[in-house]
Known about the structure:
By secondary structure, this protein is of the alpha/beta class. It is built from 13 helices and 13 strands. The chain has two domains: 13-247, Type I PLP-dependent aspartate aminotransferase-like (Major domain) (Aspartate Aminotransferase, domain 2), CATH 3.40.640.10; 250-375, Alpha-Beta Complex (Aspartate Aminotransferase, domain 1). It is 39% helix and 13% strand. The strands form three sheets. An eight-stranded mixed sheet has the order 1-9-8-5-4-2-3-12, sandwiched between helices. Helix 3 (55-65) packs parallel to helix 4. The chain binds pyridoxal-5'-phosphate. Pyridoxal-5'-phosphate binds next to helix 3 and helix 4.
Amino acid sequence: MIPFNAPPVVGTELEYMQAAMSSGKLCGDGGFTRRCQQWMEQHFGSHKVLLTPSCTASLEMAALLLDIKPGDEVIMPSFTFVSTANAFVLRGAKAVFVDVRPDTMNIDETKIEAAITDKTRAIVPVHYAGVACEMDTIMALAKKYNLYVVEDAAQGVMSTYKGKALGTIGHIGCFSFHETKNYTAGGEGGATLINDPSLIERAEIIREKGTNRSQFFRGQVDKYTWRDIGSSYLMADLQAAYLWGQLEVAEQINQRRLELWHNYYQAFKTLADSGRIELPVIPANCRQNAHMFYVKLKNVEDRTNFISYLKEAEIMAVFHYIPLHACPAGEKYGVFHGEDRYTTKESDRLVRLPLFYNMTDINQRTVISTILSYFA
Length: 376
Ligand SMILES: Cc1ncc(COP(=O)(O)O)c(C=O)c1O
């Protein structure tokens, strides 16, 4: 069986996890957490990076930090993971879904302004497949209407938009280090990027159960106390040790994934040219991280047949999100603004192919030849 995904393993994880175990500190904010955070601050150019248990936790932190309240509205695509919406709905907000662009499957930046009301507090662009949303337009709208931007960059680690790292453009950015992502913290993990310096102090407090324990550990205060609402949003240092092994070779992982991505692209270009499938589009101002390789088939039936054909050949290819507005909770907690021109139609046609760091060339060749035989 060729799996759809396998968690990345680079070989140094055990050594670093052992080092964490012998350091005498396994909880959050240990030595490996600091190393990962500093590396990301320097590499991506964020004022403050805080490791968290998941991107879900990072999005929840963002909603707390922005004081999202009942009655507020938050704009996002419907074609996304549940956590993008849940984080804000948990604070009582309504998710306002806007259609996606068919080329990138990202929120259509030209449809956002019409969805803004006097209740809108934030825009949450999701960088699907690690390909950037049109951030200049989104940031200009945020400025014009005094809104916050929280980038859901779960899939966007190491991607850029006009040279800027994804996750560092909005006021807050959220990364995922789940095992399905390009880099993992041993299965689960995330990071909150605080790009607006005025939010840093409160972000640390919210992450530390509403206390100023981070200031206490830095020796800035002589005791720590309950200051605000908060929760436990720290990553265990054992997980940060796993992640450190991967960040050290981040570019190597990136290059290998890009190589696999381009192999697929080249192999299927003729099929795309003849109109049989559609391939992903990477806008000129975006540098992507090959988080995902998807193709679009004619319709949902064609996709079902395609997935079954690959499964018979012991290859796992999978579709993606069921648009949130069509889900029971989406109907209850959200509303689709404007016409659903592309979200449902395009998500029905999309299928993701196996692509992971440790994928072998021979396995990829098998996937490619099986797909070519399906279309033959
Ligand atoms: C767009 C998006 N946002 C958020 C998440 C949640 O990430 P995590 O599993 O780290 O909580 C995911 C995970 O797949 C995702 O794809």
